[in-house]
Amino acid sequence: EFCYCHISSKYHPPFVPFWEQTPNNTLEHDHPSFAFFFLSHNIPSTFPFQMVSNLLLYLGQLYIKNQQLQAQMIQQQTLIQYYLQKPNKHIKKAKKKLERRFQHMKLRKAPGSIKKKRRLPPRGQFTVEDFDVYDVTGVFEDDFEDIYSRVEQRLKAPRIVGRKVTKTSLSPRIHLILVLHWLREYPRYKTLSQLYHISKTQISNEIHHILPILLSVLDEIHMPKEWNTVGWEDISGTIDCTSHFRNRVHPRQGDLYRADKKGHFITAENVVSLNGEICYTALGLGHNNDQGMFRRTELDNYMEEKDIHWLADGGYHFYRLVTPNHRNSRAWNQKQKDLRSTCETAQGMVKMWSFTSCKVRESLEIQQVGLMICYHLANLVLKRFPLRHHQSQSSQSQSQSQSQ
Question: Which of 35, 204, 235, 289 has its CA 20 to 30 A from that of 67?
Fold first, then answer.
């Protein structure tokens, strides 16, 4: 009340600070600034004016300092808003300048740059009709239904983890589509979480649970009982290796590294018939070259038992393998390349599944299981649509006799 009476202009002319009116910053009994206060409140002469004068001096100094701080804050906030409204290419430079100049202040982000918390839509029930099965999985609908009939019972069985039974909002068919979609496109778990409205943890659990089940029921790659040969060099198939790259592993990362490839990968050796069907697939460590994989798989013994010849590139060396030879004519080498292209085309069909062509982030065991599943799925398509139609040597002789 004392201070209000002293500084308010309601009771007297414009205020003049009392420390400017008295030389020693002391108050006298007849000071004009307090005349109204004394008359209206009957202050006795024993009032401690010295203590009150010191108090008012301190309050006046605080008032002036407060006004200065407010003006400085307004100037700083105006400067901050000016820099934050600059174009994006100057934002980083402006922020660094502000941090150096106002280290004691916490800068607020511009309203447009504040990321809101992502909210997942409510979990819905999907059906197979909601997806283009071939576009998402890479297999036709009848093949998909055949695969689902093999794994249906195992997918519907309750999963007991510890003492709890895990539950999910998706049907078993959608679980299978999710895993095949992951192999086909190889997206991030975050992308699948947004598409199927489930958490990334559940997606990881589904993939690790379904992949071994899926591999156990697929049996699309096997050696034929009898190899059909063509008249040119008695050829019955082709053989080649391809690389599937991955992240570096630890320990023993050198087992998967080759200096000429400049990366870590798994080597896959494939035997393909002349019509493009995959007959044999073997996975090996990346440090093995083509000839090393050929020896490790012991296919040389198999070729001697069956008395057959295959086409191969210059990385193979075996007397039953027909490889390019500069001593032969140019037409002969061109014919060898044309027939050998079926194996390379079949491997290209496999790499339409992004899991086989991208750099894999998962563990080595998951990559091996996923690669074998992709080879089986690709062979389903190759059996339906053969790359070439080659007649065996015996069938060609029969057709010639009938024509004669």
Answer: 35
Give the integer Cα–Cα distance in Å for 155 and 157. Answer: 6
Instruction: Give the torsion sign (CA, 271, 277, 283, 289).
Output: positive
Question: Contact at 8 Å (CB) between 266 and 375?
Answer: no
Tell me the C-alpha distance between 280 and 222, whole Å: 6
In the predicted model, what is the mean pLDDT of residues 328-355? 93
Could you count the other beta carbons within 10 Å of the beta carbon of residue 374?
A: 25
pTM summary value? 0.66
Burial of 246 (0-12, 13-18, 19+ CB in 10 A): buried
**Which strand (E) or helix (H) includes residue 50?**
helix 49-84
What pLDDT, in 10s, does the model give residues 182-217? 999 999 999 998 888 888 998 999 999 999 999 999
- CA 28-34-38 angle, 5° bins: 100
Separation between Cα atoms, residue 248 and residue 284, nearest integer Å: 16
Contacts of 159 (CB under 8 A, 6+ apart): 165, 166, 209
Q: Are 389 and 283 in contact (CB under 8 A)?
A: no
Which residues does residue 241 pair with via DSSP β-bridges, in sequence order?
A: 269
Backbone angles phi, psi at 287, to 5 degrees: -75, -10
110/265: higher pLDDT? 265
